[in-house]
Amino acid sequence: MAVADTRQPTQAATGNKAPPGDAPKKTPAPPELGKEQELSAFRLMLLIRRFEEKAGQLYGMGLIGGFCHLYIGQEAVVVGMQLTLKEGDEVITGYRDHGHMLACGMDPKGVMAELTGRQHGYSKGKGGSMHMFSVEKGFFGGHGIVGAQVPLGTGLAFSNRYRGNDNVSLTYLGDGAANQGQVYESFNMAKLWKLPVVYVIENNQYGMGTSVARASATTNLSQRGRSFDIPGEQVDGMDVRAVHAAGEKAVNWCRAGNGPMILEMMTYRYRGHSMSDPAKYRPKEEVDKMRAEHDPIEQVRARLLAKKGASEDALKKMDTEVRGVINEAAEFATQDAEPNPSELYTDVYA
Amino acid sequence: MPTPVLMPALSPTMEKGNLAKWLKKEGETVKSGDVIAEIETDKATMEVEAVDEGTLGKILVPEGTNDVAVNTPIAMILGEGEDASAINDAAPAAGKGQAASKSDGQSAKPAQQQKGQESAPPAAPDQPTAKEAREPAQPKSAVAAPPKPETVPEPDVPEGTEMVNMTVREALRDAMAEEMRRDQSVFVMGEEVAEYQGAYKVTQGLLQEFGALRVIDTPITEHGFAGLGIGAAMNALKPVIEFMTFNFALQAMDQIINSAAKTRYMSGGKMASSVVFRGPNGPAARVAAQHSHDFTAWYSHIPGLKVIAPYTAADAKGLLKSAIRDPNPVIFLENEILYGQSFPVPKLADYLVPIGRAKIVRSGSDVTIVAWSMGMTYALKAAEQLAKDSINAEVIDLRTLRPMDIETVVGSVKKTGRIVTVEEGFRQSGVGAEIAARVLEEVFDWLDAPVARVTGKDVPMPYAANLEKLALPSVAEVVEAAKALCYR
Lengths: 350, 488
Hints:
The complex is a heterodimer of chains A (350) and B (488). Chain A has 350 residues and is an alpha/beta fold. Chain A has one domain: Rossmann fold. Chain A has 11 helices and 8 strands. In chain A, the strands form 2 sheets. Chain A has a 6-stranded parallel β-sheet, with helices on both faces. In chain A, strands 5-6 form a two-stranded antiparallel ribbon. In chain A, α8 links the parallel β7 and β8. The longest helix of chain A has 26 residues, at 35-60. Chain B is an alpha/beta fold. Helices cover 28% and strands 21% of the residues of chain B. Chain B has helices at residues 85-94, 130-134, 168-182, 206-210, 222-234, 253-261, 263-266, 296-300, 313-325, 375-388, 406-416, 431-443, 465-471, 475-485, and strands at residues 3-6, 16-22, 29-30, 35-40, 45-49, 54-59, 65-69, 73-78, 163-167, 186-190, 215-217, 238-242, 276-280, 306-308, 330-334, 342-346, 359-362, 367-371, 393-397, 400-402, 419-422, 452-454. In chain B, the strands form 5 sheets. In chain B, strands 11-10-12-13-15-14-20 form a 7-stranded mixed β-sheet, sandwiched between helices. A 5-stranded mixed β-sheet of chain B has the order 17-19-18-21-22, with helices on both faces. In chain B, α3 runs parallel beside α9, α5 (222-234) packs parallel to α6 (253-261) and α11 crosses α12. The longest helix of chain B has 15 residues, at 168-182. Chain B is elongated and about 100 Å long. Classes of the chains: A alpha/beta (350), B alpha/beta (488). The interface between A and B is large, with 90 and 96 residues.
């Protein structure tokens, strides 16, 4: 059974000293997705990309304030992982969270209206970009303190074990959060109590402006669970097929009661850390190369056209449809009213 | 219709910038994500990416232009099948900016211009609050006052109810056991709570009755297990998390404040955690500064938390049961020195004490003494001594610090005209400071003397027995303060 492999990650387990910005290592060609799955992955990634582009634009117009962390470039991670989930599974992440919300099926209108701080935003305009939640859709936030979602996600897994169901908690964190102490406290308890949690480390190679190599004594983050005997694997996070294959293995491992697993998704963010980050800490060529050669959406587009018999026209039509959804969301988010002043004092206590 | 590209705000504070360079020429094709220009802000040079696809039809602001205001159209993008002649038609409208839709040309106004708008927005399909959307926005002056905390009156203990003497420790254990019998989602977690039967034996017997799934020994990782408990609560379990002492909860402070206290608000009420953090708080005996510290004021500062600090066994039991049932995060501050003290507790199947209500435990007319938890031991003894000097003190056990029952305190001050607060915590920004401010705000005219505070001294707790005694409040200090207020 494939699960046994997870204890022996395919990638070198020690000292990955590759400089940041190198192309993700190619794992052996991952299993292909069916045409329908590939098409739905394509649409969802496109939805996230267009949403984030629009959010960037609205930010530029002063309609979105404060912090706004865009997910552009990392779409394959959340879309590939989402394909492995079932009803009742939980998703939780940090502050680069718009993609996760859309992947969980949250309404782009409600998400965008939260970004603009309006009354029909998911949090009534009180949370903003980093703080939205939809327990019905299995999305538990949206957390602004680096690493804080990791014990919380471990607690979601604890509740699954407590109830004796076979649901799994997908707990996302970044390469920056991987150095937080509470992450290791969580790893310890998760393994000790065999909690069903997949820790998905989205390694986009920079914690704000600091590269992984400059912040981390060991850079193969998939092996950060070794002291706790938690299996881990590095995955090409730009390839939705690879994400899906690794995700399925990890989620099944957890469902079967084997305890936690770590997946390190080698990915890349095209934009700065937040809107006001000019990203001068990395060469422009590095960004251009990732965009040109590893773009998660273009990879799927190419496969759909070359191997899956999709037509340019059909894909273009899909893009137009997605743009329509996003424009509608932006329209809603800019026309919706700000929260009623009476909301100032609500929701402090039940 | 041609789409304008607007001068973007590239930081929360940017109002204008310099157009440093165009990277695309007129007539060139652009697609989403292409970098089309570089903008200098006050902090850095930033790239501007295209959002819309088409042809760069016209550059409206040439490179090298300084101080271009945010939202000024800087270029026009032509859609498929459009030519430059379309720009002249569109240009006048472009000045208002285009936020949302390029199909209808509807202009979006910046947020600050939209306040108080009357038009009903389209209903969001996924949102249950469409009704509010139809209600006209209220003017700014309609900001509601902070709501008064709602509390239920304390139920009378029926006449003839048997009173059983028990220690605070036993009362707390019974409260947890009763709530665990009542609700399968309640569990207890912490260091040494199960096999060891509790570092202070508060959880004695729980493992035997409820088993290892519901009574869980944790590793010594306060930050981690506090967060784990909050996560479980977000998924509708009801954790009772024991800190061996609240000194160690400093390690968990981020999770308690940022994850537990704030989430209900930040989610607009969509998600929250019903969780109790409990354990001994405040000075213990001869353990020095790191293990002897009263954190009451810290927690009472935070909206979103409820903070309870009982004195008697009956209140410990009734309030802990209420805390476990409360849908909000509750900080339940016990006291190591009180664990072994016995008090009468009503023998009732379900004895609940409401959160947020103070109790007048001794009626008097000359001076009000307000205390809670360990502070009550000083207050009650002081009242007895004062009585010998014919000073009739009213003693209030605050019991809950947040929400604070200031009405009971204020009502008492109206009667006595004098007030002394007693706490083991530090003086600066202590709970006594808050009570003093509220009394001054609400009943200044009733006061016959300044507010007096008896507190722990402004030093880390010393180890030496004599110094420790000096650092703590004393009965004598309370008596002295009360007498001074009475000009005696």
